[in-house]
User: Fold this.
Amino acid sequence: MLELDCALEFDPSRDEEFFLSLPSRPAVCLIEAKDNAAAPFFIRTQDLRRRLQRLLGPPDPASKRLNLREFAKGIRYRPTASPFEQNFVYYQQAHQLFPKRYKQMLRLRPPAVLKINLRNAYPRCYATRRIPVDASGQPSGGIETRALRGNHEKGGEGAGRLAAGGAVGHGAL
Assistant:
């Protein structure tokens, strides 16, 4: 597991030193709360220094922007070299730190599938995120990409191919 291996204590009276010690690089960051009962604030960012200056810098009285200056005790972070690494570290840490809500944090959604309703006199095909199951208990169809789904909806490549269970094209379940 890729750990958040860099740590800094945050002291609002010495915030300039704190911000200068941060890299201006992409990173995954955990802002720890002063209050042990409060949940930490977990983010990924393209520029760690700039993002933390916005979140932990002196608050602007005219702005409604989130400010965590009084909330933060310290930070733990991991600089990342690629978007893939950043997403991977974010996933691993979110799964470990927030096991009940990490899926919402990552915005994980089921893949899009096409549902074909052949029970009507006028069959219809529509996209859904729920895996449709017909009366025989067979799931019907999965399309890997939106482009392929669009081809099937328009009657393009392989649009007429229906498997015995009603599955459509590539990736049939």
User: Anything to note?
Assistant: The helical segments are 15-20, 48-56, 83-97, 102-106, 146-154.
